[in-house]
Amino acid sequence: MNKIWVIGLGPGHPDYMLPIAKRKLLQAKRVYGGKRHLETYNMKGDKVQIKIPLFETIEDIKSNYRLNQTAVLVSGDTGFYSFLEMLKEHFSEDELETYPGISSLQYLFSKLNMSYHNAYIGSVHGRAIDDEEFRNYNIMGLLTDKKQGPKELMDKLRKLDLSATLFIGENLSYSTEKITAIHTSEEIERTYSSLCVVVIKFD
Predict the structure, then answer these.
(1) Using an 8 Å Cβ cutoff, are 50 and 32 in contact?
(2) CATH 3.40.1010.10 domain position(s) in the chain
(3) Distance CA 193, CA 173 (A)
(4) CA end-to-end span of the chain, whole Å?
(5) 81/74 Cα distance (integer angstroms)
(6) Any bridge partners for residue 123, and if so which?
(7) What DSSP letter does each residue of 77-97 carry, written as one string?
(8) 8 A C-beta contact, residue 98 and residue 85
(9) CATH number, domain 105-202, options 1.10.3720.10, 3.30.950.10, 3.30.420.10, 1.10.10.10
(10) Which of 90, 95, 131, 154 has its CA 20 to 30 A from that of 176?
């Protein structure tokens, strides 16, 4: 029986996609992904753009995966705030097979030559983090969104009277990559990408 391959693409550039994930993608007969993913990565199967609302894509996968080896592409790592959790609500463990990728936070920590084994790793993408978490860690790595970006994190740290440096990663792994370091004692003077990755190192 065909399994649904959930493939992590890494931070963005195909160079950072794991070799086994590349091989599986080339073997898939039907590939679901975002528009940018389907245009960027090398594949031979039929391309199906993931639709909103997502249940339409779920139903399409259900109708096709038994007849066609199917792959579902997710940004970053399959196990870190990805589409995998929703797929698990609709398919059994026996129907899914995951191939991990490098998360954008892993990538940013590596660019900073910084370890993260004692860091708080999480996301403010559509969710809030308790104030105490900001006080309990020396390092934090966060995915952000349009409503909670670098400026909002800076405001939060100042409100909590915490001193720290924010390392803001934009367009990570692409030629337009930009990593900016700014301290809470400084003012943010520009608008950052709506989907940034931020590492916070407390003084």
Answers:
(1) yes
(2) 4-102
(3) 14
(4) 54
(5) 10
(6) 143
(7) -TTSSSTHHHHHHHS-GGGEE
(8) no
(9) 3.30.950.10
(10) 154
Considering only residues 195 and 85, tell me which one the structure prediction assigns the higher pLDDT: 85
Q: Tokens 């390392």 label which residue? A: 167
| CATH number at 4-102 | 3.40.1010.10
Per residue in 58-103, pLDDT (tens digit) is 999 999 999 999 999 999 999 998 999 999 999 999 999 999 999 9
- Please choose, from the candidates 77, 57, 48, 92, the residue with its C-alpha nearest in 3D space to the C-alpha of residue 143: 77
Question: Which tens digits make up the pLDDT trace of 122-176?
Answer: 999 888 888 999 999 999 999 998 888 999 999 999 999 999 999 999 999 999 9
Element (H, E) at 60: helix 54-64
Question: Distance between CA atoms of 123 and 148, rounded to whole angstroms?
Answer: 10
**Range(s) within the chain of domains with CATH label 3.30.950.10:** 105-202
